[in-house]
Hints:
The structure holds two protein chains of two kinds. Chain A is α+β, with helices and mostly antiparallel strands. In chain A, α7 (236-247) crosses α8, α11 runs parallel beside α20 (775-788) and α19 crosses α20. Chain A starts with 32 loop residues before the first helix and ends with a strand. In chain B, strands 2-1-5-3-4 form a five-stranded mixed beta sheet, with helices on both faces. Chains A and B meet through α1 and α19 of A and α1, α2, α3, α4 and α5 of B.
Amino acid sequence: MTETTVTPERPLVVESGELKPGFIGQNVxxxxxxxxxxxxxxFFDDVKRHEMGxxxxxxxxxxxxxxxxxxxxxALELDGVYGxxxxxxxxxxxxxxxxxxxxxxxxIKDYAxxxxxxxxxxxxxxxxxxxxxxxARDAAELVEVEYDPLPHVLDGEESLKDExxxxxxxxxxxxxxxxxxxxxxxxxLADADHVVRIERLxxxxxxxxxxxxxxxxxxxxxxxxxxxxHGNHQMPxxxxxxxxxALRVGIDKLRFVSxxxxxxxxxxxxxxxxxxxxxxxxxxxxxxxxxxxxxTDQHTANTHGNERTFLDVTVPxxxxxxxxxxxxxxxxxxxxxxxxxxxxCIIWAQVTPGCYRWRNVRVDFTQVCTNKSPVAPNRGYxxxxxxxxxxxxxxxxxxxLGMDPIEVRKKNYVKHEEFPYETPNGCIYDSGDYARxxxxxxxxxxxxxxxxxxxxAESRGKLxxxxxxxxxxxxxxxxxxxxxxxxxLQFSGNNEVATVKLDxxxxxxxxxxxxxxxxxxxxxxxxxxxxxxxxxxxxVNVRAGHDTYWNSTAGFSGTYASxxxxxxxxxxxxxxxxxxxxxxQLAAAVFGASPDDIxxxxxxxxxxGNPEAxxxxxxxxxILNANNAGLPPELDITLNVRHVYRPAxxxxxxxxxxxxxxxxxxxxxxxCAVEIDPETGVYEIVDYAAVDDCGNRIHPQIVEGQVxxxxxxxxxxxxxxIFTYDEEGNLLTPNFYDYHVPHALDMPxxxxxxxxxxxxxxxxxxxxxxxxGGAGIHAVCAALQNAVGRRGEGPIVWRSCNPYExxxxxxxxxxxxxxxxxxxSR
Amino acid sequence: MDPVSRKTIxxxxxxxxxxxxxxxxxLLIHFIRDDLDLTGSHIGxxxxxxxxxxxxxxxxxxxxxxxxxxxxxxxxxxxxEGLAADGELNGLQQAFSDHHALQCGYCTPGMLMSxxxxxxxxxxxxxxxxxxxxxxxxxxxxxxVNIVEAIRAAAQ
Lengths: 826, 156
């Protein structure tokens, strides 16, 4: 805690030259910062409208109950209350949101408010709108709801028995199930010298809990029937696909606007139920309505990350430590409503073998509902849980067979010379060098003096362990993977949009389809545009935020799934290239030259080799926009171009569940050293390093910031962040008192390093990388395992979250977890 | 006092005098954000844990979601909007930008106010003192690494 090392002044390894010409690859000042450090950002809760009303949801105190009656009359009598909305009204005014899954999940009926039944504590049953926030809360307490409690189920495995069924229409708690079988697992098993079996592993519930809660201000235009939603939805394209049919309107009736968003991390992808309720209220009450989620509401009833149980993990291993693959039964607990979640049943397959050359993998995957908060994408979505499994496999196998986990990793990693590498299920790992990243990480934590450190710790009565977490941040989805889930779904490929124009006074204006939440899109877009147009980032005005009425959105617009550097900047590059071409055509027409003779430099369009013949951008903008008489009629340009970036994807082979599911694979290799006090289970992370490889870095400082932040979230999840429930289904960590997220004093010293393995598949050689922090969970688990276990002895770290008391339990009762693992050697 | 009784208060915020009538139960943060429309200070937790609403009240660092507006009657309040003079960022703000100490920017105003309070009391804090100084402020984006760097740089 006393020493923090940021990136070494000189990078340890650079693939493609340290000093690059132009703006791409430089740490230019962030455009967003000036407003944000002055408190001049505009977040949704800062937007106000005359006579707006504040929304308060009335929420269920029961995990599962029939709603007998909802009486809003006393609330309506309160002075200052504008109106209410109940589930019965919602059932009349809207259709259920469409479901992604095939049956049984397809038959679930999900509405903006609970209809007839509540399915988790916090499930909204009614909404009240009042003149002030305080009055709305008062009024919500006056809504009388009569419940008839039902038995509930909180555990995924229990829920599979269907003794308590949440969704009667579905007839089962199973949302979706499927078997994925690649290579020849039975042959691998027969070929193995050792078979390691792990009975159970469990990835715990947590969430990245963005500091800004969810919310919106919704205006309804009675004349046009159009809603404007000033909110913080991070994937409005998909939000509108959910909402418009439910509201029975065309998709253009929903306008999503956001400027600044206070963190998203995936938790703001499934806001459509709350937003739909607000749309109904704005229309019903004929006034703008404002909803700001309370922190307790976010924890109890917004979204959590997936909770996943892995059963019967079986790993065939050769005598030299080569692993041939694995098989597993995975049970994914998605809480009360699946919403986006069925996609999580497939998305892990983007990283099927993790970082390893495993060719034989069989996964029996089932997603199931329970009476807990719904889940949704959470930084590292679905791949994080799966990669945690692959990393636990490596560490447990190494520990049980008495091998060095670092050597086992290096033996099994995909090798640098094998890229592009096709996984057993047809995904193409684009580029990387995992072993090199691992070496850098080990170097950063001083692995050479490991034994000395261990002896020193032991001399102080501490247990010492070192652990590695290897992850891939797969980015730029091929949405065709949704068809593996449900062949009826009409989603495939991907797209993103940008527009770039040269305005009348020569101003370069960029609009994005993305929905930034702190990733610096304005800055990096300006770097790319400046480089192409021959001006500076200061000359480029990137409009802040997102507005679906800017005509720069497409079906998959949003900020999610580690893709901006590819899709967002791919669109920006495409649009800027087109604009540069048009500017050259215009200058050529003016000079009577060929466009090929024109170059764009120093905010001028000039004839190559003749600096005197130059037109400033202002002249180009003015000529086309306002002084265009006499231009040749065949000059077909607008200086306002829109580009849709569309990566080259094919639809996957649904029968084999085979195909390329994502375009890029950034690498993160983390290394961590822990010291445990065996008396108490209290442990400290004494050294930590994170090495990132995301191809060409557009803005290294922003990349490193993402590494820091993702790591902090992972360390919180590894050590103390967990959503636990009591027997009645009450969340025990409903706010930041009980749900402790890392503070400045909690963070260990952090060292970072990087390499750049250019992606051969992307416009700028870059890869998305914001979600890679899951490596921190794997690294901490590995370090704890290394500290407490030995070959055939000691406890097994079997959960992803290991708070101090959990480690103490492991040490007190080693046999309880030891029995989870067995080794058959032939 | 009846929680919904009305009361008139006078405060000085960033050198500007405001007199407003409000519900006695109104939180200081809601008064600042909703009544005065100074939306730089944010709300992240409702329970006094996250520090996004941190302001200075008569020079003391306060989480303004933990204080009623009526308790600030007559006080001098400083918020993030008062840090820059004539649109020029102060040294601390500039250091936050230079060191990439913010991503989404939601915690930043509170973080800046905590750092301001720290640096007024301790002109050259150690890293440990900086971390203690901002331990009441949660950031979910940065892992604090660059925030600590920025405060250290601003102190120098």
